[in-house]
Design a protein that fits this description.
51% helix, mainly alpha, 3-stranded antiparallel β-sheet, 2 domains, Herpes Virus-1
Length: 236
């Protein structure tokens, strides 16, 4: 993609003053600004990108992984959507060239190098974006299933015995189930078919299998991040 981007910008510099029936030069300038924006102001780091820290007023803590707030997710989604739509717009310009009424000649004749480079860059970038997000959604769901089934383990996992030490079984008639009717890990309702546990320190409820899978990956409460590891169970 970097090589194609360089090719496209070389063609832009060659044909920047040659007007054709669709504004491919303007499209290239905006795309170059997008690339520079993502490589500088919007470049992610350990404490988030500069735009997230300034515009969204949020900086992640590298030591405590947690889900970004809604405003950060909306910002990231808006940026990704704009870039994807701009690539689609570039493809629309390419395919519309030659069929629109204009005083200028078609771009494929006036600026053939620019025409072909924009076509290749926009098509590959759009395809890569779709492939990336489709696989990310599928991969995330797969990881969620594996975690709930206890198939994932990390270095941040809680020591053996943490679940039994810090939780208690909740009966179906317990009033706390009415206030927390859904397990926030699997997003399914609590019922009599699956055993429900309450964390003693914070009182949050989860399915036993879901919480055990979570503790294989993290040592804290999935909701409030309360550390479940007692000093007696802390690793040496």
């Amino acid at each position: 993609m970097l090589a194609i981007l360089v090719w496209m910008m070389v063609e832009y510099s060659k044909y920047r003053k040659d007007h054709c029936d669709v504004p491919l030069q303007t499209w290239c300038l905006v795309m170059a600004c997008i690339v520079m924006f993502n490589a500088t102001l919007n470049r992610p780091g350990r404490n988030g990108s500069l735009m997230v820290r300034v515009f969204c007023m949020w900086a992640p803590d590298p030591q405590i992984p947690r889900q970004p707030p809604l405003r950060v997710r909306l910002y990231n989604g808006a940026v990704a959507l704009f870039i994807f739509l701009w690539n689609i717009f570039g493809l629309c310009l390419v395919f519309a060239s030659g069929s629109v009424s204009s005083q200028y000649p078609p771009c494929i004749r006036q600026a053939p190098g620019l025409y072909h480079s924009v076509k290749v860059y926009a098509a590959l970038n759009s395809t890569f974006t779709v492939f990336f997000y489709v696989n990310m959604v599928g991969f995330s769901r797969l990881l969620g299933v594996m975690m709930r089934r206890g198939m994932l383990h990390t270095h941040r996992a809680a020591p053996k015995g943490t679940l039994e030490q810090n939780t208690e079984v909740v009966s179906e008639k317990d009033p706390s189930i009415a206030n927390q009717s859904t397990c926030s890990i699997c997003l399914e309702d609590h019922d009599s078919k699956r055993e429900v546990l309450k964390i003693k320190g914070c009182g949050h409820l989860f399915h036993k299998s879901c919480l055990q899978g979570w503790l294989n990956v993290n040592r804290n409460c999935p909701i409030c991040r309360h550390d479940l590891v007692d000093t007696a169970f802390a690793p040496v």
